[in-house]
Amino acid sequence: MVGSDDRIHSYRASGGIEQWVNEDFLRRKLSAPIALNDFIAVADREGYLHLLAPEDGEVVGRVKVDGDGVSVPMVASVIAGGEGESARETLFVLDNSGNLTAYQFQMEDSQ
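Request: output the structure for the sequence above.
Response:
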C-alpha cells in the first residue's frame, strides 16, 4: 500500500501486521503498487519505474520510463510464450506522454 505521503507499506495477509515500510520515495507522487511474481512495482511523477523486493521493500531495480512521469495505474498480465517458451508476466506502463510500454523482468544471478 502507498500512503498519502508516498511511504510504501507491506502488511501480512494473515493478521494485517506490518512487515516493512519503504520511505525512499517521499513526495514523488507514486502510482498504486502492483505485485509481480518476483517484485513490487511502483512508478512516479518523475517518470521512473521502481522494482522492490517483496520480502523487505528494498529497491532491486529502476528504469526511466518517461520524463513527463507516470500517473495512471499499471497493469500486469501473463503473456503466453511462443513454441518452446514459457509464459512470462508482463507489466504495461502508460506514461504521461501517452506511450504504452511493456516490461518483462527477471532476476540476475548474483554469482
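The beta strands are 8-11, 18-22, 34-35, 40-43, 48-52, 59-64, 75-79, 88-94, 100-103.
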